[in-house]
Design a protein that fits this description.
Blueprint lengths: L1 H14 L6 E7 L4 H12 L4 E7 L4 E6 L7 H10 L3 E8 L3 H9 L4
Length: about 110
């Protein structure tokens, strides 16, 4: 099973070599599905957003960017703090959001 997941992750990386960037944010204050839904709705309104992932357990919000577009970290931080959350970290990655989503589905050791 782990081999299949690794193959899928590698395939996703290869097929997205032109790759849209993803911004991962660590966010405190995420406690319920309503929180996740509100954040997702707010971030999807940003013109450069291609996809949004909110994981309550990991306190992670990931935003996939449309090809050739960007969102300033200050804008993301403001959107989340205005909604009442605390952003504790922001990291940009080349990983597609689907790979991040799959990583979060893996059982914790």
């Amino acid at each position: 099973m782990k081999v299949l997941v690794k193959i899928a992750m590698l395939a996703a990386l290869v097929t997205s070599s032109a790759g849209a960037a993803t911004i991962e944010m660590r966010v405190n204050g995420l406690v319920c599905a309503f929180c996740a839904q509100g954040i997702e709705k707010k971030l999807r309104k940003l013109p450069a957003t291609a996809d949004v992932l909110v994981d309550l357990e990991q306190r992670l919000v990931a935003v996939s960017l449309k090809q050739g577009q960007d969102i300033a970290e200050a804008d993301l931080r403001k959107a989340l703090t205005d909604a009442g959350y605390t952003v504790t970290g922001i990291e940009r990655t080349d990983l597609p959001i689907d790979v991040i989503r799959e990583r979060l589905r893996q059982p914790k050791p």
